[in-house]
Amino acid sequence: MLSAKSLFQxxxxxxxxxxxxxxxxxxxxxxxxxxxxxxAALVPETERALAPKITRHGADEDKHGRIFNxxxxxxxxxxxxxPPETDYTMLLEQHGVGLAxxxxxxxxxxxxxxxxxxxxxxxxxxxxxxxxxxxxxKHFADHPDLGRAxxxxxxxxxxxxxxxxxxxxxxxDAGHGRAxxxxxxxxxxxxxRIYRDVSLAVMAHMGRILGWxxxxxxxxxxxxxxxxxxxxxxxxxxxxxxxxxxxxNALGGPATTAPEFA
Length: 262
What we know:
Structural class: mainly alpha
Strand content: under 5%
Helix content: over 70%
Order of helices and strands: HHHHHHHH
Shape: globular
């Protein structure tokens, strides 16, 4: 029977598929770290109080990238090239979700609308990350090799999501509510399509590595399409709602350091 746990266990047990999984994750986290560092450096003067939190967000993403690389090193594996069709973070940027890298490379201050775009993009993608890590925490929190990494990253993603809720609500109170809701909707509808395409690409690569049968590959693809159908019909709304988080000021302190995994 196919399940998220059995599927990931199969990927985990094979060195080649495990290296691909960790390489994709490490690459995405490193890109997120760079983006947040640039945004923190370019925050407009009216939002300077936000800069330390954005810096913390980026430091967490960099830490996650180091953790995934350390997990590979622990198995004696080297990072592998990330197929472009599996690069979720880059594909989001290419499809206009979030702030363009061209803008971030310039030394020009961002606008408050740019900060709204950044936070809305983060609200949507951190929802996805939090859900994925919650699934891994549910099944692998006690795993001898992965458990500590999974627990740390999952906790960080929960904090990132709480931070996005809190800051977007603050900006809503400041009069940006209509722009926030419009941007959230645009980001969510683009993200669910890209997530579907990336999921299909990742599963295709894993299937070739692991020698999945055609019926198994077809069943997994059908499941991915079913999730996208649900999200397109209304599941995307969970990505755009805003509520006061239980954990306030979640990124208000210094970033936690990553323990040695290798």
